[in-house]
Write a structure and sequence with these properties.
The chain is of the alpha/beta class. The chain has 2 domains: 19-33 and 257-346, Aspartate Aminotransferase, domain 1 (Alpha-Beta Complex), CATH 3.90.1150; 36-254, Type I PLP-dependent aspartate aminotransferase-like (Major domain) (Aspartate Aminotransferase, domain 2, 3-Layer(aba) Sandwich), CATH 3.40.640. It has 12 helices and 12 strands. The radius of gyration is 20 Å and the shape is globular. Bound molecules: 4'-deoxy-4'-aminopyridoxal-5'-phosphate. This is Histidinol-phosphate aminotransferase.
C-alpha cells in the first residue's frame, strides 16, 4: 500500500453540478466576453514566446497591477488565479494544524484550501439580519492566525461594513485576507487602502470576473512588502503562462474602460433581474456582486430542472442562515431573460 497523506483521505475534488448549457450563469464570470486587447495580444505575441520560461515572479504583471492599484511593485504578488494567491497565503502564514477562520457562508474553496495545507477550517456564521455583516467578536475568538473575509461575499453578494472590517484588522492577532474578487461591481467597499496602510492586510483580486479572463488564470494580491514577500516564497517563480501574463497586462493597461462598462451593465441587469425574481414571488439577498443569491426551497431539484431547460445556475443546499438557494450570475439581458423564463416554468 502506498502511504498517502492521512489528512487527504476525505478531501473531495471541487465538482459543482454542471452540464453544458446554452445559458451558463453558474460561475460569475464576465458574460459579455473577454477584453478587446486579448485578441490582439494572443495573435501578435502568441507563438513568439512559447519556447522559453516567463520571467520569474511576473515582473511585467506586477508593474501593471501596481500602476492599476496605485501601489508600489513591492506591494504586489500574483498567482494562477486568486485561488492560488489565497492558497499560497494560507501556506505562507500558517503551520499545519493552525486555525483559519472565515465567515459562513463564504467562498467554498477556502475550507478546501485550508484542508489541503492540513489547517483547521473554522467557520463563523455571518450575523443574522438583513445586512449579514461580519461577526467580528466570533472571528477574533477563534484565535486564528489568518482570518479570511470575502467582500462582496460569494455566494451571498452581501458586503462587510468598513467599521466591522477595520475593527477586525485592528484586533486580529495575525493576517486578515480580504478577498475582493467582485469589488469592481460594488458601490464603494474597496479595501485596497487597508492593504496599503496596515501591516496585516492582504487584499486579493482577480482577472477572472469583471476583467473577463477566467480561462487565463491570473489573480493578484496587495499588501505590505513584508507580507507579500512571504506569499511570494509560497508561490514559487512560474505561476503564469507567458500568454496569460501578457494578456493580463494589456487588459489592465488598455481595457479598464471596457471592464467598467461591462460591470455597470451587469449591475444594472442584476437589479432588473431582481425585479423579475420578485415578480415570481422570490426575494433575492441584497448584492454588490455580479450575481444574486435567491433562497429557493428544494434548490437541487430546481437547479436540475433549469439545466434541462439549458440554463445552468449554481445550487446551494442548506447554507448557514439562508437555507437552499440559487446563485445566478448577471450579464447581458437576453441571458437573464432566458433564466427568468425557465425559472417561471420550473416554479
Ligand atoms: N474568490 C472568490 C470569492 C471567488 O468567487 C472566486 C472564483 N469563483 C475566486 C476567489 C477565485 O477566482 P480565480 O482563481 O479565478 O481568480
Amino acid at each position: 500500500m502506498i502511504p498517502f497523506r492521512d489528512t487527504y483521505r476525505d478531501i473531495p475534488l471541487y465538482s459543482p453540478a454542471k452540464k453544458p448549457c446554452r445559458v451558463d450563469l453558474s460561475d460569475n464570470t464576465n458574460l459579455f466576453g473577454s477584453p478587446p486587447s486579448a485578441d490582439r495580444v494572443l495573435r501578435e505575441e502568441g507563438l513568439l514566446k512559447l519556447s522559453r520560461y516567463p520571467a520569474g515572479y511576473a515582473p511585467d504583471l506586477k508593474r501593471a497591477v501596481a500602476h492599476y492599484a496605485g501601489v508600489a511593485v513591492e506591494n504586489v504578488t500574483t498567482g494562477c488565479g486568486s485561488d492560488d494567491v489565497i492558497d499560497c497565503a494560507l501556506r505562507a502564514f500558517l503551520e499545519p494544524g493552525d486555525v483559519v477562520a472565515f465567515p459562513d457562508p463564504t467562498f467554498v474553496m477556502v475550507p478546501m484550501f485550508a484542508r489541503l495545507s492540513a489547517l483547521k477550517p473554522v467557520p463563523v456564521p455571518l450575523r443574522a439580519g438583513a445586512d449579514l455583516d461580519l461577526d467580528v467578536e466570533g472571528l477574533l475568538a477563534t484565535g486564528a492566525k489568518l482570518i479570511y473575509v470575502c467582500t462582496p461575499n460569494n455566494p451571498t453578494g452581501t458586503v462587510a461594513s468598513r467599521a466591522a472590517l477595520e475593527r477586525l484588522v485592528d484586533q486580529a492577532r495575525g493576517v486578515v485576507l480580504i478577498d475582493q474578487a467582485y469589488v469592481e461591481f460594488a458601490r464603494g467597499g474597496d479595501f485596497l487602502d487597508l492593504a496599503r496602510t496596515r501591516p496585516n492586510v492582504l487584499v486579493t483580486r482577480t482577472m477572472s470576473k469583471a476583467f473577463g479572463l477566467a480561462g487565463l488564470r491570473v489573480g493578484w494580491g496587495v499588501g505590505a512588502p513584508s507580507l507579500v514577500a512571504e506569499v511570494e516564497k509560497a508561490r514559487g517563480p512560474y505561476k503564469h503562462t507567458t500568454l496569460g501574463e501578457a494578456v493580463a497586462v494589456s487588459a489592465l493597461t488598455e481595457d479598464v474602460a471596457w471592464m467598467e462598462a461591462c460591470a455597470a451593465e451587469a449591475v444594472e441587469n442584476r437589479e432588473r433581474l431582481r425585479g423579475g425574481l420578485r415578480a415570481l414571488g422570490l426575494e433575492p439577498l441584497p448584492s454588490e456582486g455580479n450575481f444574486l443569491l435567491v433562497p429557493v426551497p428544494e434548490a437541487r431539484r430546481v437547479g436540475e430542472a433549469l439545466r434541462e431547460r439549458n440554463v445552468n445556475v449554481r445550487v446551494f443546499e442548506g447554507l448557514t442562515g439562508v437555507g437552499d438557494a440559487l446563485r445566478i450570475g448577471c450579464g447581458p439581458w437576453p441571458l437573464m431573460s432566458s433564466a427568468l423564463k425557465a425559472l417561471k416554468e420550473v416554479l
